[in-house]
Write a structure and sequence with these properties.
Layout: H1 7-13, E1 20-23, E2 27-31, E3 39-45, H2 60-77, E4 84-87, H3 91-94, E5 103-107
Bound molecules: guanosine-5'-monophosphate and zinc ion.
Zinc ion is lined by residues 3, 6, 8-9, 48, 100.
Length: 116
Amino acid sequence: MPDSDCLFCNIVAGDIPADVIYESDTAIAFRDINPQAPTHVVIIPRQHISTINDIDDEHEPIVGSLFSAAKAIAAQEGIADDGYRVVMNCNKAAGQSVFHVHLHLLGGRIMNWPPG
Ligand code: 5GP
Ligand code: ZN
């Protein structure tokens, strides 16, 4: 069920604009409004799932499709061979600020480890 109070559900619905660069039956992706790397794309399921803790067995194909999207977008952005990072934050201690699960796809620069 879409959540009308959820920013990313509103982006999926087209009610809030975003620079959408990828769409599939289960996922969409758009450029992050506050990019942390030359390429910073947010990949989300069309379906509202709040956090990783809310992922059920039935969501597995949807969650898997986020990684298929990451692969396709990395190729599209020309960063697949150099390398890139995908990150999914869960809850406040990890820095999750939008409670609709999303993969961050970051690339176009050297990524440090460990992350902050
Ligand atoms: P989180 O902090 O939950 O892991 O990631 C949320 C991400 O969404 C942040 O990187 C933030 O910059 C991005 N974001 C927040 N609001 C918007 C928005 O309205 N449009 C876009 N394109 N990105 C947003
Ligand atoms: Zn949502």
